[in-house]
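Weekly modeling sync, notes
Attendees: S.R. (lead), two postdocs, one rotation student

Agenda item 3: backlog of single-chain predictions. S.R. asked that every request posted to the team notebook include the full sequence so nobody has to chase files. The rotation student volunteered to paste the first one in as an example of the format we agreed on. Action items at the bottom.

Example entry:
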Amino acid sequence: MSQPLHVVLGASGAAGREVVKALKERNEEVRAASRSKEFEDIETVPADLRYLAQAEESVSGADYVYLCAGLPYDTKVWEKEWPLIMNNVITACEKTEARLIFLDNIYMYGPPPLRLPFSEEHPQKPSSRKGKVRKKIADALMLAHRTGRVRAVIGRSADFYGPGVEKSILYISFLERMLKNKNPQFIGKDPKLSRTFAYTPDIGRALRTLALDEDTYGKVWHLPVSEPVTMVNAAAEFNRVLGTDRKVKTIPRKMFSAAGAFSSDLREVKEMLYQYDHPYIMSTAQFHARFPDFQAVTFREGAREMAHSFMEEKAITAK
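Predicted structure, as returned to the notebook:
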């Protein structure tokens, strides 16, 4: 009997590459689908999931398909392209009879402030357009499961951090600035509010775990997170590794709003500021009840590995 084939869509992204690593650790047969990167030791295929033919080609013969793809952080792009991508991937998986494992985020929960710690059962009345998109595509996938088109499972993740993760608030506003001898900046109201983060190697292992358990399908699962930390804690952990003493500076909301008039990136972040104005702690009780032996990395260890990855890349030595 041939070995099951696992296809990772968006394999070159922060989470996708960790799914690839987690599968290789178990010696699974893996195919990487990516628009931008070639993997030397496994089959790699180009895939633009906006096109059904490419989606079908990328998952041909697959037994398990992990949808870890990302899009530019642009609301109009999300509204146009995410429903198209989800429909194409569902159709492709239906054709090849592959199980579909979707890496989701937590934007659909609302209204803010959320009930803490928020679980998979939290009301879904998103206050943002991006959150409405995420709810729409997750609902479409669960409908496809209920109607028998595909066997699907959703893993929802908190904000990423980890080795080489550049699209993270902990890199863009914190670590990157600290490596340049600048103070970290926080876009919320209070850097002493607690929140949970998801370590990307944990996400890779968790998605593999969900995929290989038949009883997880048809459900939504919150993926493992760190213990709750404040942004002051986060800066302290990076300071510990770098041998520095940088303090968190809060960006005044008026200044943020003014800068948004000139920066599309800041305008896109503005509707998501509610995540930083209140504690934002995700419950993973359901996942750990099902998989009690799964150990998530502590924030201290994760921050250290993240910092070392960028220090190595930039040839910086800790003081």
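Discussion: group reviewed the output briefly. The chain has two domains: 5-158+200-222, 161-195+228-281+296-313.
Action items: rotation student to repeat for the remaining queue; S.R. to check formatting next week.
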